[in-house]
Design goal:
The structure is a homodimer. The first copy, chain A, is of the alpha+beta class and about 240 residues long. The first copy, chain A, contains seven helices and ten strands. In chain A, the strands form three sheets. A six-stranded antiparallel β-sheet of chain A has the order 4-5-6-9-8-7, sandwiched between helices. A two-stranded antiparallel ribbon of chain A has the order 1-2. In chain A, strands 3-10 form a two-stranded parallel ribbon. The structure holds a DNA duplex (19 and 19 nucleotides).
DNA sequence: GAGTGGTCTAGACCACGAG
DNA sequence: TCGTGGTCTAGACCACTCA
């Protein structure tokens, strides 16, 4: 049961994984070329590439086209704290976590109308945040707010900081987490392989009048991101509903 | 930017995806064999298999070894509601969602000691839940409770139902969600491809004395599972406590 | 046993990165 | 330009399902 089919690529992946974890292959180091590795393990190139794909899916190595395969630096884990008010992932930013922000004016369409509960073609502001931790991309956020809550002409960075002050207190924050493979665009922007799962979080913030004041689509690389949701003194749901 | 590399497998996947969404290929239907499809699209078998792998990753088709590729029935989405008290995924079970439960006595080791904050080799009860919705596997849960909270000799189903009554009220429930690829075991148990991401939720329940009374490791197939966490009045915490 | 998918081979050609 | 990874080919052999 533990070995449904003893495949070669798993054996190779296990060997390389050991070399990485034992430090024989150090972080940042370049692996031998795929042709060399294929020769060493006596397998064909597709088989060796499948082995590397496994390690890539675990986030252990990074492929750079035209350059080689590199052992990834063990990245700090990203911790998304749920129930939050801040628009982006709110890790304590003691390290150099800088964010590129770009705002766009657009009109509601498609699933955005449902998320924000607005009528089609009503004005929205999209805030696109791409966070970097040093060199490596960290998280991608697309935040949509009704147009009147985000006046145009304000630089993105300022807008993000001020959003919380400009609206009435929130009544409810609902966060939906799901796991999926990244789109092509997300994979390239986050510099992850398209076989590495992402943690996608959709956050809907509603004010006391029931109006949706923010819809945020967050995408975090699955190999180093967690989202925690803490609830204190939860009520017994079954009793509460009765 | 939209077409970094115009690959053939994407074109084939797009075509098949269209056929599925337009109903030309109906749910449950078997696709032509891979050899036939390869001939139809004039590609080699590995290329065609790559195309099918894409659809598999999206949960659109299911491969059954020795039988064929089948269009999957659009499965009801699994909704895991966070902040909960019930041990397993608590979808309103109006449909035939039956769960296989198996309990095992074991002793704490490895990461379990950290999760439950118990000393190594202290007795634990493992409750392994596998839910099915009709034919298709639904979710996998491994629940660990300190041995004294789960007396031996009680059948698993009864134990699960009684757990909530046997312990003091909870003070805190912390849930950590992450996205990753399934282990080989999880992939076979949930009958998903190993390229399909899973949503893994670790739930730690603490009672009022600070003791961990339950650690649950939930695995949900990423193509049809979401986890929602709702927080009301996040700014006005005192009201909720009153 | 016939047909199917699962794995693997040994190449080919193209696209990208760095010197 | 040269070495690298990215994609693809046209097979082979094994394991599984089902009649």
């Amino acid at each position: 049961m533990t070995r449904p089919t003893p495949t070669r690529r798993h054996a190779i992946a296990d060997d390389l994984r050991n070399q990485i974890s034992t430090g024989r292959l150090k972080a940042g180091e370049r692996l031998p070329s795929e042709a060399q590795l294929a020769a060493r393990y006596r397998v064909s190139t597709p088989t060796l590439r499948n082995a590397l794909a496994l390690l890539q899916g675990e986030g252990l190595i990074e492929k750079i086209h035209g350059s080689g395969n590199y052992v990834r630096h063990p990245l700090r884990r990203i911790l998304y704290v749920g129930g939050g008010c801040a628009p982006a992932a709110q890790t304590p930013t003691e390290w150099d976590l800088h964010t590129t922000v770009r705002t766009t004016q657009l009109r509601a369409h498609g699933h955005l109308t449902a998320l924000l509960k607005v009528s089609p073609r009503s004005p929205l502001t999209e805030i696109l945040c791409l966070s970097h931790e040093g060199e490596s991309p960290h998280s991608l956020a697309r935040i949509y707010v009704p147009g009147d809550l985000a006046p145009a002409g304000i630089p993105g960075e300022v807008l993000v900081a001020r959003l919380a002050d400009m609206r009435p207190p929130l009544a409810e924050v609902q966060e939906k987490a799901s796991a999926r493979l990244p789109t092509e665009e997300e994979a390239t922007v986050l510099r992850i392989s398209s076989t590495l799962a992402v943690l996608a979080i959709t956050r809907i913030a509603t004010d006391t009048t029931g109006r949706v004041v923010e819809a945020a689509l967050l995408v975090l690389p699955g190999d180093r991101a967690d989202a925690v949701f803490t609830i204190r003194h939860p009520v017994d749901v079954r009793r509460a509903e009765a």
